[in-house]
Sequence to fold (596 residues):
Amino acid sequence: MNSGTGPKVDPFTIELIKGTLNGARAEMEALIARTAMSPFIREKKDYFTAFLNPAGELVVSTALTLAGNLVDAVLDEFPAGTMRSGDIYAYNDAYGTGGAVSHLPDMAFVMPVFHQDRLIAFVESWGHLWDIGGMVAGSISPHATSVFQEGIMIPPVRLMRDGVEARDIMRIITRNSRFPDMHVGDIRAIMAACRLGARRLDETIARYGVEQVELAFEAMLTESESALRNRIAERIPDGTWGFRDRIDSDAVSDRSYFVDLELQKQGRSITLDFSRSDRQADGPINFLMDDSVPKFMLGLWMCMDDPGIGMNGGFERAVDAIVTRPGTLVAPRSPAPLGLRSHTMIRVTSALFGVLAQATGGRASAAPAVYVLYYLRGRSAGREDTLCIEGLSVGFGARTFADGIDAVYYVAQENYPIEFAEMEFGVEIEAFGIHRDSGGAGRWRGGCGIIRDVRVLADEAELGLRLDNCRHPAFGVNGGHSGQPGRVLVNPGQPEERDIATMSDGTRLRKGDLLRIITPGGGGWGNPAERPVDLVFDDVLDGFVSKKAAEDIYGVVFRGETIDHEETRRRREALPRPDGLYHRGHYYHAEADRRD
Fold:
């Protein structure tokens, strides 16, 4: 793998080291899952782990570690020469660390690893903490207008020195949480994962030698860089393409916001320009985007057909430039709030799919919907207040070769089991099923969202809600239809039924109220009339598509429980042929709109 006369590492050793460290990373995550205390970490699995080289480049990580350079922020305050074995550094300050973390509940923990007093690597873990202070329990409010309302901000601090916890710093952090015991448990679980990762790296060095491990690190980075550069050269023609996608609102106003991306490709060189994106929002949808994030997104999509290629800093090396403009949605100035930054982050993904679809004649995935969160803060006489933060699944966009994923919460994480939610949060889950017809129709169907009925058991409760893709559904590609929007109702079917604004906070609920949350679906890919009839038939039987939609959109005609194949043939021939690359439901991309 290396040229010259210096030390070399053979491909077999590289794979052994890669497998060893991936196994160690999975072991670190298992430790967090089994020892953390908060529902978001223990059950939702909202945490990530990684190994980085001394320069802070990701070497081994999970595919969803879309974070910035987690080490530079630490080294700016604590030079490498001052670090010792057993140290752990922590922070959550998004602005103070240049977007290394993108909102305050995500706290990063970094541990240096030494070999004979020489810095070899860093081990990293981070997790979404349940409550870090701020204006509401759970810290994130859709109505926040300043980052200072979203919780305590911790700059890089040394939380452990020579293996000894800095109790004064821990006391400051936990004193700012409404759930201090849970807070301590989560932090110590994440730090324990760092220590486990450091031990496993020490064992790997002892087995293979420090030079072999360092050479393997560089070989893994080079492998990913080369793979992405080759795919860019092969699959994206030279040229310039632009695309814009919209967010429904920023939760504190009725205004929609947009992410605008221009892709410029020349030979093996590529630039992603976000500078035309909308101004920073008044509400908390701002996304302080580190340059690494769209680079990783591009690398994951371009290299998804090769499981041997790891998501690491090689992807960063392969993309020449990311362009942003200060004061915009993806480069906000402090103190713009950041709590709902995922709404913009998902639009970065969909805008990337949009420009790739243009560049490749539709050979890109359709847009995903943004995952949903609700916050139910309950109060009952004589009992402690309760806090329910539940993330709900949506439909992801159809791919060029397969349907979108149904009912998924951010891929790497999980939905709460009904039994757990009822036990932990003092609610009753009365229904949980598929939002039929929500996945955009296509040759490949978009993933469907879900319907979840939640009965309030507290005497009174306050609801915060973040549900997107209602005004601007997830778009379809290459003739595929857009996904269908979601909706939120209180007491559906009753005389007092009412709709709730899908990006809102402070809605009052009473004991016995039924909250119905209907989440949106992902966009479809390709002409619906070309979807195999047997797949449409299966979708109807499985509850993903209604018979009416099968007939009206897919042209598949049912006679009772069977298909009328002759009428289906005639119906499909009469269906309108799709024109253009995108289908947006309520909103259509147009060149004129790019200049508004």
In short: The chain has 13 helices and 24 strands. Residues 585-596 have pLDDT under 50 and may be disordered. The longest strand covers residues 118-128.
